[in-house]
Design a protein that fits this description.
mainly alpha, 10 helices
């Protein structure tokens, strides 16, 4: 890889870690969005596995109710795993251009939901069937694009979790999605020794950015940062769709 690509990788994970440190999510989304400009989607996804896994396990274990959340969300997590492995062939196959368009659409949809402040409420009695449906859909999107936020994040925000529970639930969902993505990439020979070493190297700027983001979070209003973040993602998503279809 050229020096320019190395700079892109380091800067991307520094920025992605910063975003995660401030708002508690966004590392894979930012990383996939920026890396996909210069790298094939499967290569970009392979790079984010270890930084995403480490930062999300950290977030998951810091929460208050892991056991209860794991039992409640087990059907959804099982469906995420199945859907991601099933969809990984799109990301690594001959339809990489299609995956890039899908990534752009996923980013733009996520940004639109965030900017619109859209909120929904899901009654507890509906979780039994809706959780696996959301999980399978999220898994298919993850397998095809490397992004694991749609529709998992809006759903988890809708099931009535307290703030700390929500942060922990997001950590659980992202951890399972990352593991599933790694398994999916392995199943189509898109994750190899070289990818693992590069992913390990990407961990350092990601952790540095996350630490900086946690410091920054105490100095700026989170809603302001979220608006800027979602606006940037919207522009990036539109750019990826237009660039892949041009």
């Amino acid at each position: 890889m050229s020096i320019g690509v190395w700079i892109l990788i380091g800067g991307t994970f520094l920025l992605a870690g910063l975003v995660k440190g401030v708002i508690g999510m966004g590392l894979p989304t930012v990383a996939m969005g920026l890396l996909a400009v210069a790298l094939p989607p499967a290569e970009a996804a392979a790079l984010l596995v270890i930084p995403s896994l480490v930062t999300n396990v950290w977030q998951l274990l810091a929460g208050p109710r892991f056991g209860a959340l794991a039992r409640r969300l087990l059907p959804m997590m099982a469906a995420v795993l199945a859907g991601t492995v099933a969809g990984a062939g799109v990301l690594a196959g001959n339809h990489a251009g299609l995956a890039g368009v899908g990534l752009g659409i996923a980013l733009a949809a996520y940004a639109f939901v965030g900017l619109a402040g859209f909120r929904m409420t899901v009654a507890t009695r509906h979780e039994r069937w809706l959780g696996p449906t959301v999980g399978l859909t999220t898994g298919l999107v993850t397998g095809a694009t490397g992004v694991f936020v749609i529709p998992a994040v809006p759903y988890l925000q809708a099931i009535g979790l307290e703030r700390d529970e929500l942060i922990q639930a997001l950590g659980l969902s992202f951890t399972v999605s990352t593991i599933a993505l790694a398994l999916g990439l392995l199943s189509v020979d898109a994750w190899n020794v070289g990818s693992i070493w590069l992913s390990l190297l990407a961990l350092a700027p990601a952790l540095l950015g996350m630490q900086a983001g946690q410091i920054l979070r105490r100095r700026i209003a989170a809603p302001t940062f979220r608006r800027v973040f979602f606006a940037g993602l919207l522009l990036l998503g539109v750019y990826l769709v237009v660039e892949r279809l041009a």
